[in-house]
Amino acid sequence: MGLSDRFKDEKKKSSAKKTEKKADKAADKKIEKKSAYPSHVQADLEMLEDIECMVLNKIAYTPVWFEFTEDEQKKLIRDYLNARLALPENAALILTEDEKDIFVTRILASV
Question: Does an H or E element contain 60, and which?
Answer without folding.
Answer: helix 45-60
